Every structure is written in structure tokens, then in C-alpha cells.
Amino acid sequence: MALPGKQILVNAFNMNSVGHINHGTWTHPRDTSTDYRKLDYWTSLAKTLERGLFDGLFLADILGTYDIYGGNVDLTLRESIQLPVNDPILLVSAMAAVTEHLGFGVTVNVNQEPPYTFARRMSTLDHLTGGRIGWNIVTGYLDSAARAVGRDAQTGHDLRYDQADEYLDVLYKLWEGSWDEDAVRRDKAARVFADPAKVRKVIHHGRFYDVEGYHLSEPSPQRTPLLYQAGASGRGQRFAARHAECVFIGALTPEAAQKTSRDIRAAVVAAGRRPEDVKIFVGINVVTDRSSAAAREKLQDYLAHTSPEAGLAHFAASTGIDFARYGLDDPIPYGETNSIQSATKLAQTQKWTKRDLLAKHALGGRYPALVGTPAEVADELERWVRVGEIDGFNLTRIVAPESYEDFADLVVPELQDRGLYKTEYAAGTLRHKVFGAGDRLPARHAAEAFRPNRLAAE
Ligand SMILES: Cc1cc2nc3c(=O)[nH]c(=O)nc-3n(C[C@H](O)[C@H](O)[C@H](O)COP(=O)(O)O)c2cc1C
């Protein structure tokens, strides 16, 4: 919970693509995001983030393309609105090799692959990173993703979460239940690598998944990766309440963040956990410089390169509404959506027209922007944490990597002076760094039911 004097958590928010949140800024002369396909772009970014003591690099991902706006992908391609987009998982080993502490939160859709193979990929990364891997659980919101793999449309909104619940159960069985803690002996003299009595086959026959098999990886430092989630609808929050350790919310004001944050913590408590068992992150833009005037000038320079229309095309995909069909001041019939319910509901409540939406996407995206000197930005960050009852931020890149460098060089020292930011990394796994309570999920988490001691008792 937001307490005075607590340290603020910060992730860099990024994607293995050119356009991410702030559309259009790839055209800025100092922006290097078109190099996203080169390894040194990522290794150099990881080193910058570790220099700034960022808690993690949070990598978004999307399966499918943004084809709602105008009914095609023309603008999506011209402005590179999350297309092309490369696989985020493949970046992690390289970045882990050049860092010691930085965490990695990787978005993977539960529809991407069966839980059995996904469990091994995460365990592999947990081993290779020394326990620095996190997973952002997403269920998808694009019909284009379903069509790309031979289905007519995506599964219904709430059913997607039901399926994801079972996907997680299978993963917990594999990560937490298949191998006992002392299963691996590595005893050369006795010729025993692993004790067969301490490794068990997972047998799962459910509504969506059938699995019979041993987890392919031996226990990794965290076993289950640190779990991120971003669902904000009622069903999405119930899913978060059961599984998520870090919840990523979109909020335009600290007051809006407070409401969402209270709702999430109440749902977490209803699920038998503690309010502080989830850390809540808000997506934020920061534009800073040594003087207020220089920061405002920097903002104007960024604004000259953004594409509000590309931002709107992204929002069209999030809501499933083709805004290209409407005049600037036409009322927009927001209805039920099978895409991101929370995004659509907000637009509906506010009765946003296309003109309103273009203005909201002035920076190419809709995230709140904090603009000013490091002290002014720090004041605002403090206010967001206090009023919003949040724990930290996912910091966007407006211009890459400048946005992260400015934060590391200017804002971090200011926050450190106020005692609001770490001055060195804590030792241990990502989960331990974030919660300070060990490497593994606590016993009050849903995963506990799938641990060997619990399985044996049944
Ligand atoms: C801030 C934020 C970031 C998200 N990032 C991704 C992402 O990278 N990939 C993705 O497929 N979905 C992403 N989503 C979508 C969510 O995972 C989820 O599918 C969506 O919010 C639907 O939730 P709701 O209908 O419960 O609100 C994001 C959502 C929010 C609010």
C-alpha cells in the first residue's frame, strides 16, 4: 500500500518493435527504435536501465495486427504501429548476459503455445537469468490473431479468462508440483542425478487442457516467474486477484488510479491474499530537462513528431471500433466489445468524440505525461503514488532510448535524494527484490494448492 517514504518501483516499458505507445516518434532524429532488430540495441538498453537502477524491463507483445482502423493495416504499416513486432522472449538471454540485477517482464499470450512447452521456456529463462524473469499474462484482444491461426474470431471475453485460469493451474502443477525441492542430487559418486521418488508426472484433464508429463526443467530459482497482469474488467480483476503479483493499470489521473487500485486490492483480499501481495504500476510518460523551459521545449519538439492518428488507430484495435468511419464531432456508438472492456468503458463514459480522442493522443498515446524539471517530475510521481495508492510506474519511451536516459540521469538522483528510490539493488531474485520476502510465491497464493506437500495430503 502507498506509504509515505516508500521506495518507488520503476520498469522501462518497451516492445520488440518500432512503434509502441507513443506513435510517430520513431521519426524523431534522435530516436533509435528502428534498430530494434539489432542485438546491441537491447544489450545497450539493458545496461542503461541497470545504471538507472530500474527494477525491470517490461516487454509488451501482441499476436495479430491492428486492422480495425479503416478496415486495413495501411496506417499500421506506414507508422509501424506495433507491426512489425518480433518475439520478446528471445531478447532476454542476451540482456541478462550484460546485466546482473535488472528484471525482465515478458508478455506472452496464453494462446501462443501449450502450457507444457511454455512452462519449460520460462523455467529455462529463470535458470539462465538467475531468477530475474517475470511473465505478463495476457489473453489477447484481437480477432486478427485468431484468424492468423485458423479460427474465425477470438474466444469470448470472459471465457478467455476462464481458459487462462486453467492454463495457470497447469503451469503451477508443472513449476511447483512436478519436482520436489531436493529432487536433484547431482551426486557423481552415487550415480544419481535426480531421485526418481521425488519427481512426479503431472496429470491434468480439464475443460481446456489435457496434460500428462513430467516438467522438463529442474526447479529454477523462482519456480513460477514473477506474475504480471493487466486485465481491468471485472473478470480481469478477478483473474488478477487470484494470480497477479504485479498489476499494470492504465489511469489518466491519480484519483482514477486510486479507485482501480482499491478495487484490485479488495479483490486480492477476497481471494485470500493480502493487499500488499500485489504491486500496482501505472503507465506514464516523462519529459524532463534541467529547467522547466527546456522540458517544455523538449515536449514541443516531441509533439512535432508524434502521430495522434496512429494513436487513434491503436485505440481502435483496443476497443474494436473503427474511428475512421466517424466525423470529428460525431457521437460514437460505444457498445459491448469483445476487445479490451476497460478501455471501451472509459471512452463510453466520457462520450469521447474523434476530436477528443485525437487530442488525447497528442503524444501518440494516451498515457499521462509528466513534464518539467527533475524536482517537478518527482513531485508528481510522489503525488501519483500517494493519491493513486500505487507502487510504481511503467515508463514509456517517447524517444528511445532518450526517455530512459533522461529518467536515469535526471529523475533518479532527485528521487534518491528524497529517499524514494533505491541507491543500490537488493540481492536475490526478481520476486525477492520486489517483495523482499523470498524467491518463491507465498503460501497464500493459488499456486500453493499445487505444491508437493499439498498434493501429497490430498
Ligand atoms: C496497461 C495495459 C497494458 C497491456 N499490455 C498488453 C500487451 O502487451 N499485450 C496484450 O496482448 N495485451 C495487453 N493488454 C491487454 C490486457 O492484457 C487485457 O487483455 C486487456 O486489458 C483486457 O482486459 P479487460 O477486458 O479485462 O479490461 C494491456 C492492457 C493494459 C490495460
Automatic annotation (TrEMBL):
Domain of life: Bacteria
InterPro entries noted in UniProt: Diverse_substr_monoxygenases, Luciferase-like_dom, Luciferase-like_sf, NTA_MOA
Domain Luciferase-like residues, every copy: 30-388
Keywords: Flavoprotein, FMN, Monooxygenase, Oxidoreductase
Family as reported in the entry's similarity comment: Belongs to the NtaA/SnaA/DszA monooxygenase family.
PANTHER family from the UniProt entry: ALKANESULFONATE MONOOXYGENASE-RELATED, C2H2 FINGER DOMAIN TRANSCRIPTION FACTOR (EUROFUNG)-RELATED
UniProt-recorded name of the protein: LLM class flavin-dependent oxidoreductase
Annotated organism of origin: Paenirhodobacter populi
